[in-house]
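User: New here, any thoughts?
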Amino acid sequence: MLYTDTVYTVTVNVLTPLVPLPTDSMWAVEIFDGNALASNTNDAQTVGFRLVDILTLRVQANRAPPRAEIQAEVIVDPKNWRPTLLLLIAPPGFNFT
């Protein structure tokens, strides 16, 4: 039971790298009220969810002779996201005109 006028600390341990499916990671939620042991916990039974989605980005050009200026097309599949900004950073020696 949680009480009013009590300061609680909530700790959430999350493992996100190299976990392909959200269901491969369980979340542990613990609530501390100042004592050594947690007053509440979900015992790591909360199923994980995707924090970061993998977006598909493809660059294609009709031709690409060395050291030439070419037209290229950047194709991004935002999936269910609605991004408002795409930042492309050219490798050293490249120039986006």
